[in-house]
């Protein structure tokens, strides 16, 4: 017979045995919890950390369900107070969940000892543990499992997840029938409390838990990079309360900001032309350009026909040079900020490709890897080096997209500033000498915190405006290439660079130059982001843009989910009033990409009147997807 345990000393309470914890979730619920956590991390700018933190064992009483409660204190997003915007945030989380499930996104498992895993995570901004402390009784030789989904690595040691994001997975409990009870899925901002609650349901069938196959260091590195590169989808502003405003206040609300680094507010292009001092394109100039194109069997480009390219500087003299077969070349460029270009980046390149074919002239394309490094580069403490080579690598990737636009390769010179600088350097020095710092500061907004490279860069972007920077590449311009005229197609926000260039051009080019060295420009309007007509498309916000590497499914998801609609709130109102075409993104994008003018007009009439084949938003978006 076993001996009885000794009685507890007098005055001490008898210790109760520890309660057993809840059973681990079934694989489908565990997988759904991981998918919901990663989706929330992408929407709110969170580090997903441990898969068990905030996970409530709802599955023990409600089959196929679970609930997450996440702390939003470290969110990268400025958390709005309006309930309408809370609803938008939950819609975005559901959209991210749907995207992961529809893509059947792979989940990989990496396994290592706790000591090695802690070493791999390392960074206090992206820690392995919530609160920075390991669990109780943790040992260095414990095995830790990390699940990676969509680039995000999550500690899933005690969570049996599948090898794919299977579903469907649906957020539930967004409303409550009991007014005294909060919804189970909500954004909660109360005092210092900032929380996200997500109750979810999955209908996925039982699946086997995935086995470790990945590298811990690779998984953690990829996750940290994904977290740092995370961009947040902007929210549609809540409807403002109607209060009387002074004329001055209304003017301030409508103020726009357009410069080489920022485009904000509602753009009034007429005011912009007046502010910058450029000129609107006239029918007579377009007729001359169309006649030159016709000689090469081409029609005037739809960007000119529809006023997308709308403003210019000295285009008439460029047409003189083209008509008289004088020296002429094109110059455009790209700042490589992302591995893939988006549709907005394509606009000047599509225009430039057409101009090259219509005028039969050479082209130089400047890849400003130096500029992007000066503005966005970082110093890596661990490596003891700057990340300049990252932007040089992006240059090579972007160059592939540019070449695919269909340029005449025999007449096109694509160069990296880092590689070609030596050839341009004499002109760069001349431009530096010609521009005072007070002029540069006034034009570009430099401040005391700007690094010296940023202050010096405008001269580097100006140098390709002068043909003497390309004596070998531009030999096809004729016997006197230094006199060749330069035409720059660009979005109008780049105009400040070249206004300053034009002011000093006479000091750089020979006196025989037809424009005294001044580059000519044609300006485009901005390609609208998916979220609406304010500003322009941005590579830093992945859901504001369609990238050239996006899959067909991803393009469909972004357009159907995020493209801002000018349609009315109900089918009845849409039938009565029709859509507002000026703010409808799908219709505006058709203006950029649909070649057939008659079809575009028919779609506009149908959608704008709420009648016919394209009476609603869905039909117009489906037509856009064909393009």
Description of the structure:
The model is unreliable at 238-253 (pLDDT under 50). The protein has a 7-stranded mixed beta sheet with strand order 12-13-20-19-14-15-18. Strands 1, 2, 6, 7 and 8 form a 5-stranded antiparallel beta sheet that branches. It has 21 helices and 20 strands. The radius of gyration is 29 Å and the shape is globular. The N and C termini lie far apart (84 Å). With 627 residues, the protein is of the alpha/beta class. A hairpin with a 2-residue loop joins strand 7 (186-190) and strand 8 (193-202).
Keywords:
single chain, 627 residues, alpha/beta, 7-stranded mixed β-sheet, 5-stranded antiparallel β-sheet, 20 strands
């Amino acid at each position: 017979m076993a001996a009885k345990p000794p009685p507890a000393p007098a005055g001490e309470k008898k210790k109760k045995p520890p309660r057993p914890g809840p059973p681990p979730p079934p694989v489908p619920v565990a997988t759904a919890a991981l998918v919901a956590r990663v989706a929330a991390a992408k929407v709110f700018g969170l580090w997903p950390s441990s898969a068990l933190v905030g996970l409530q064992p709802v599955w023990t009483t409600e089959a196929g369900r679970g609930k997450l409660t996440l702390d939003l204190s470290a969110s990268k997003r400025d958390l709005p107070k309006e309930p309408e915007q809370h609803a938008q945030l939950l819609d975005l989380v559901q959209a991210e969940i749907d995207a992961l499930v529809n893509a059947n996104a792979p989940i990989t498992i990496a396994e290592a000892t706790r000591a090695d895993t802690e070493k791999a995570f390392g960074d206090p901004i992206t820690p392995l543990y919530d609160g920075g402390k390991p669990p109780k009784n943790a040992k260095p030789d414990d095995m830790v499992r990390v699940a990676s989904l969509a680039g995000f690595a999550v500690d899933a040691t005690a969570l049996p997840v599948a090898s794919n994001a299977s579903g469907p997975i649906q957020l539930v409990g967004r409303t409550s029938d009991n007014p005294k009870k909060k919804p189970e899925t909500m954004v909660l901002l109360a005092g210092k409390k900032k929380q996200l609650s997500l109750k979810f349901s999955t209908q996925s069938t039982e699946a086997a838990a995935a086995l470790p196959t990945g590298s811990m260091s690779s998984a953690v590195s990829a996750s940290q990079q994904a977290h740092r590169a995370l961009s947040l989808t902007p929210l549609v502003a809540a409807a403002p309360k109607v209060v009387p405003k002074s004329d001055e206040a209304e003017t301030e609300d409508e103020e726009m900001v357009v410069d080489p680094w920022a485009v904000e507010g509602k753009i009034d292009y007429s005011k912009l032309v007046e502010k910058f001092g450029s000129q609107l394109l006239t029918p007579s100039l377009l007729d001359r350009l169309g006649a030159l194109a016709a000689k090469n069997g081409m029609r005037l480009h739809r960007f000119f026909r529809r006023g997308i390219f709308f403003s210019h500087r000295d285009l008439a003299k460029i047409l003189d040079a083209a008509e008289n077969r004088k020296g002429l070349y094109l110059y455009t460029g790209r700042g490589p900020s992302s591995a893939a270009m988006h549709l907005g980046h394509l606009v000047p390149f599509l225009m430039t490709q057409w101009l090259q074919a219509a005028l039969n002239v050479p082209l130089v394309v400047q890849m400003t890897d130096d500029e992007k490094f000066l503005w966005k580069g970082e110093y890596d403490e661990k490596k003891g080096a700057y990340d300049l080579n990252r932007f040089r690598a992006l240059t090579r990737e972007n160059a592939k997209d540019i070449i695919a636009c269909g340029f005449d390769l025999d007449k096109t010179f694509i160069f990296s500033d880092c590689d070609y600088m030596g050839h341009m350097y004499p002109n760069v020095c001349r431009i530096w000498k010609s521009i005072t710092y007070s002029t540069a500061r006034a034009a570009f907004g430099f401040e005391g915190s700007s690094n010296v490279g940023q202050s010096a860069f405008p001269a580097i972007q100006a140098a390709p405006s002068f043909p003497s920077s390309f004596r070998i590449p531009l030999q096809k311009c004729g016997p006197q290439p230094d006199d060749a005229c330069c035409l720059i197609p660009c979005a109008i926000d780049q105009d400040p660079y070249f206004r300053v260039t034009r002011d000093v051009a006479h000091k750089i080019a020979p006196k025989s130059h037809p424009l005294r060295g001044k580059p000519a420009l044609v300006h485009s309007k901005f390609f609208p982001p998916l979220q609406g007509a304010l500003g322009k498309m941005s590579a830093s916000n992945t859901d504001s843009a369609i990238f050239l590497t996006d899959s067909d499914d991803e393009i469909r998801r972004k357009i159907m989910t995020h493209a801002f609609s000018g349609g009315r709130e109900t089918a009845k109102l849409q039938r009565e009033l029709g859509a507002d075409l000026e703010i409808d993104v799908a219709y505006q994008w058709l203006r950029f990409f649909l070649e057939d003018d008659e079809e575009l007009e028919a779609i506009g009439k149908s959608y704008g009147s709420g009648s016919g084949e394209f009476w609603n938003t869905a039909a117009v978006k489906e037509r856009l997807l064909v393009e």
